[in-house]
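Morning, I've got a small favour to ask if you have a moment. I'm working through a protein record and want to make sense of it properly. The fold is given in discrete form, as structure tokens running alongside the sequence. Can you walk me through what the tokens say about the fold? Thanks so much in advance, here it is:
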Amino acid sequence: MATNIVLSNTEYKVIGTRPIRHDGTDKVTGRAKYGADFSASDLLHGKVLRSPHAHAKIKSIDVSKALAYPGVKAIITGQDMPISKMESPGRTARFASDNVMAREKALYKGHPVAAVAAVNAHVADSAALLINVEYEVLPPLMTVQQAMKDGAKPVHDDVTTTELGERTDKVSNVATHLRFEQGDTEKGFAEADIIVEREFTTATVHQGYIEPQNAAALWNADGNVTIWTSTQGSFSARDALAGVLDLPVSKIKVVPMEIGGGFGGKIPIYLEPLAALLSRKTGQPVKLIMSREEVFESTGPTSGTHIKVKMGATKEGKLVAADAYLAYEAGAYPGSMVGAGAQCVFAPYDIENMKVDGYDVVVNKPKTAAYRAPAAPNAAFAGEAVVDEIARELGMDPIEFRLLNASKEGTRRVDGPVFPRVGNVECLEASRDTAQYKSKLEGPNRGRGVASGFWFNIGLQSSCSIGVNDDGTITLVEGSTDIGGTRASIAMQAAEVLGIAAEDVHPSVGDTDSVGYTFLTGGSRVTFATGWAAHDCAQDIKKKMIERAATIWDVSADDVELEDGEFRHKSDPDLKMTFKELAGQLNGSGGPISSQVSVDPKGAGGAFSTHIVDVEVDTETGKVTILDYTAIQDAGKAIHPSYVEGQMQGGVVQGIGWALNEEYFFNEDGQMANSSFLDYRMPTSLDLPMISTVIVEVANPGHPYGVRGVGEIPIVPPMAAIANAIHDAIGVRMNVLPMSPGAVLEAIWEKEGAQAAD
């Protein structure tokens, strides 16, 4: 069931409708070209040899047998990376290069140590096995708790802690300690009548996209490099490649192929530099594709975490103090998203006194990457569990408690920004009024949980170009790779300006040489920022078309307007032309009309969501069954409601998997033991209920159409909502993710043991 709650009187002709997506036919017929589909006449195939150890010095690499294998054209190791030829590379550049190909140490199982190019994939696979690497195996650090212990051996000898913004000389696995603070938490807790403090642990999880990473490259004889890859950002990939390959960006062209899912995991580069360097050695194009095992073990999952949350409230239910400790795994190199978790953990609430400490911690796991609202789901799992516990101890309805404390316009976040118009209260009110929340939940071991979440969204740079065709359609080229239907949402915003049908816009995604700079597809920015570029570009087209109509009619452009796809003289009803009619006259009356616009919008506007879930717990096995689910979310303005609903439902599905089953399971040597879809347990349709959606539309004042990003906030509340539902069902508080059958049983037994002891 889907519901749309519109809190605005603005009416549109195209925006808010549900046209068929422009790229749908190619995708359902198999004609769309993904990275693995790339082909060339003299194409070579590559294979990467990866470390079997989580932590090991590389003593020597012997490639002689592999090079002698028939069909092998080239082999590279870490010594072939351009960084090896630099006199004094900076730490950031060195880390970026070493993550692509290890030189001195392998820092996680799956870390690349060599790569082969051969006449076909089978030869490349066989040759890789002939490369002899001598390792000195070292003990790995696999959790933040291990890595942060006093006396823990540093993963890097030159990583020193940046403490509250100041670089120190303390060598440590804590790369960064940050703090956000507002008010006086000691004073706030002194005023509290009830204080709840809990600890939480979450496991490493993967984005689980269907399409593995891939890349093809041609390093041409003229020194220019072309990359074909499935990426979430062709320009960000180009910039990253420039650093790793030590080339100016003008020498690199990235051609974005269709992308089979990303969720943040296809922002970093992995295979692209290796394909380029192998191509330079051979003079031929080279293609590399990861196996599923390589995807799990060698690309960026999200952080495992250790979190402590303490919150205090008065007996009337007013939250007066909040304190959080967030320790996030960065993986083998610094750079977890802990800062985002710190920004989001208390954002749904108006609390006078808050403090959040965040720690970015290096461990022997793959370098972490973004996963849909990166760091916020972990933080919400902890924060929302404590909020729920306080509400229950006070005997308050969990939604009413949240409404009493809800952040709204004028509320200051712990990291400083003050909220403009936001829809947190409206989401909570809509949640309270849903059919699910009003229904009675009956039966043993059944419970209902509620959780809220926040994601700040981003804007940043986007570009768009539009050309008018003589048949009345327009071509639209933009720089944002399309993961979730953004070709449609961008095209619809241009169509709205011009008064034409969405189907009369022909959108395409350009390569880095074909469109202006555009930041990556992530941060819930594309429909907001690239849509804004399309809006402004269409406005320029509209202006030029009005001027052309005025020229044809020999009148002032100030007297011409565009209404409902028709150009009209404001006072002479006989002077009118449809958009199509005018388009057909352009080449005979002054030539074609086109425009190119780049924007850098600032008013992204944060998004809130509240989720309601009903569960049933089998107390004999620990299995949790999801019975019903409703997601309520402020979209600002739903450009294409079907895609908003799809984002909401998709986020819930991933959240259910993260909550109940998904985790990296490591053995004592730091090796992942479940690197396949058979053993890494993602939910299927059999694990899921029907997921109802309620779209709330509180227009974002920072966008021409009121748009807020919608792709990331849906994954923030599910884990906490499910944990709260489990407590409602069986009276057990879950403080670990995943809440697998084993974890639930252990919690039940612990509760029973405590009761027996009493």
Observations:
- The chain has a mean pLDDT of 97.
- Residues 1-7+421-457+605-758 form a domain with the Aldehyde Oxidoreductase; domain 4 fold (CATH 3.30.365.10).
